[in-house]
Please model this.
Amino acid sequence: MSDSTPQTSAPAGPIVAGLTPAQPESVPAHPVRARWVPLWFAVLWANGKARVGIVMLVGFVAVAVFAPVIEPHDPQSQSFDASLGVSGSNLLGTTAQGQDILSLLIRGTRTSLIVGLLGGVFSTLIAMLIGMVAGYLQGWVDEILSFFINLALVIPVLPLMVTIAAYSPVRGISLIIFIIAITGWAWGARLKRSQIITLRTRDYVTAARFAGDGAIRIIFREIMPNMTSLVVAGFMGSATAAIAAEAGLEFLGLGDPTTISWGTMLFWAEQGSAMLTGAWIWLLAPGIALALLITSLTLINFGVDALSNPHLRGD
Amino acid sequence: MLLEVEHLSVDYAPKNGAAVHAVRDVSLSIAEGEFVGLLGESGSGKSTLGTAILRLTERPGKITTGSIRFDDRDITNANAGELRKIRWNEMSTVFQSSMNSLNPVATVEAQFRDVIEEHTALRGKAVHQRAAELLELVSIEESFLRFYPHELSGGMKQRVALAMALALDPRLVVLDEPTTGLDVVVARSILDNVRRLQRELGFAVLFISHDIGTVLESADRVLIMYAGQLVESQPANGMLRDPMHPYAKGMLGSYADPRNETIRITYIPGRPPSLLAPPIGCPFAPRCPEVIERCHTDAPEFLPLAGATVACHVARDQRTSGTATTTGFAGPVFVKTGASTASGDADVVLRVENVEKTYTTRRGMHQSTVAAVRDVSFALRRGQVTALVGQSGSGKTTLARMITGVERPDAGSIHFGQTAIHQLGRRGVRSYRRHVQMVFQDPFAALNPNRTVGYALSRPLRNYRRLSTSAAAAEAAALLQTVGLTPPEEYLGKYPHQLSGGQRQRVVVARALAPDPEMIIADEPVSMLDVSIRAEILELLDRLIRSRELTILYITHDLLSARMLADEVLVLQGGRLVESGPALQVIQAPTDAYTVTLLNAIPNPQARIAG
Model:
């Protein structure tokens, strides 16, 4: 990302490049107003839904970063009585193991965000490499890569995830990120492939070929900056899927049950028959937290749409 | 008056950005049956004005002040229901993109039927009759009614769009660049149609264009727009004899008859002002060769003067105080004399012999072949410009692709020195491109919107000449100097969208020069530029050819620019070479009928007063 958006302080960032031809030629593509935030952020912020999403996400990030400060008790400690109700010292009660639910919830935010970030990054990277190379080179390279994309699309992901996780010799977050990355790239790859097919015939790509540039350089230095918004949207989608998949895998008991995350909370709540014992907060709290985090990312994606398509900017 | 626009202003005010004042305080009127041309370069606000008149302005655009009256009804704030009654019935339009507005899944007849049945009492056979009549108006046979849009050519679709605009006998037709992007010969036939129909049917026309030549040929009166304001309004004949505003003179000066022994075409350097903050004083002052002190401080008012209306201090002074009036444009001029043509005995750089190329397309059971290039032979000589002239589909681009090694000919040979281009492999093509570079048609598409000028120029320098980063930067600056972008330091860090069309094309030329090639293929390098700056790029190319001994293959449909630049002209029709020879000879004494057609397609407003 840092490489593809070097000019965010310039009047027009890469994302809005598609807008420029429609503007009168004499006018700078984007009015140079004294701007202390980059344009892409201004566009995101201008979208009401995205604004709500950003505020929510910032909240989650703050909770994750300052978890040790905010959490009222040590989430690992099992010093409380089991299955306490809501009280002054345990705002959301305790688990059957005697852990403070609020503290677990706060510490679990970290896991979800890290998995979302890394799972999203890795699956986006795989999608970019495979999709863009396939779309740009075409011919037999495309045939082979497209075969793998299609293969990955038709294989049911959840059973594959479960199988890989079940047979893996290691447990833990890194495994989950790995599984998410290798199972979640196919849609992104297909989208990027179709986008690059429309971009590869542009004159500036031909010009780069005439300038002697090689395929990889053309793909990543000439074409990719022009599809930043698509890459960002793909990343947001992958991150959302990664967060959900992480919770799902851990709920099924395929993660390391000793890590603190929303997924393992759900796992232990299920194991402890939380619903039956009336400890519904134990089950509900991580569920709502997950729903809210995923909602925030989805809302931000509305703004990302506006970045890639100026017509959606609602002005 | 059929249409009266008073003090109209239109702003584009995006949510996160400053407002662009695209149209500023414009007043105009169009009488019943009058043919009015509205001229301006890109960004002058002419299309914004046209869409505002049709009340089609879309957000973030907004009419801020002024009024539009159509047939004595104020439609400035008319609601959708009221507008629906007027649109198409009384006021219709053809845009540049109208041909794409045809519904791809309905036949031509069905689309006519929609319009006619919605607004008239005609039904059944009568509708078919009417549709056939309308097609006939635009010289298309009745049998085309059962065709789908994709089965028609671009020019035909545009003519269908024109026929549809006329379907309900409107009183005003707004034509916004109706032929831009179409082939010259086709464009000419559409304009001829419009003019004939307008005389026969008597509707009023507002013809918006950047091309003063075509407008002056057909319009009764011409309005010239600059930086969002009208600067001159005159009957067309008056405009031709005595253009008053220096900008009008400059635009007129960009035309000449290519058959003349010596041709002078002027160009207007610089670019229009930003409309974010409209300038104080005359907006044209920074580019005006006749500028006086007062122009920088006082904005001239748009007032009647000697049978015209003009906004210019200089023109007013000259005509009221009796000082001598200047007639021509006093700015830079590119002169081509009959003698300045290079002789034909220089070394041959590239030899094309008996080249053929056929494309086969398969569609369902049918297999069709198109012979794109048929038995073409010619040679390009060092330091000479050869123009390859022809309309679209004549095989120009296919030839260029074969010469640059993008495609291989089916038969025949292409030799660059000792290298056989028609047999080059992947690696060979790469090293060949060090010697052969390309200048693209569309300067807006040829530069990556996300890369600076410095980056674009550094790539060929690093790839072909193996320069270090710092050496490449220095060389890039030198190249910018060569193409007249000074001071170069200012341009290296700029992005394409910060440059005007002409500046972009200079960068594209600079990039083509970077590997120090022997040959350049220039594919319509000026056709996307404003007429007022075309000569500027032609002059630059001309200078480069003379100083660097470049060999250029100049691909164009425009014989005037071919005449300005080329030593030799090759005329291509349907993949076959129909005529070739020294430029002046081919243009003055064409032997092939097709060359004559191409010559006639060049707008020649001067003929209007001469004849």
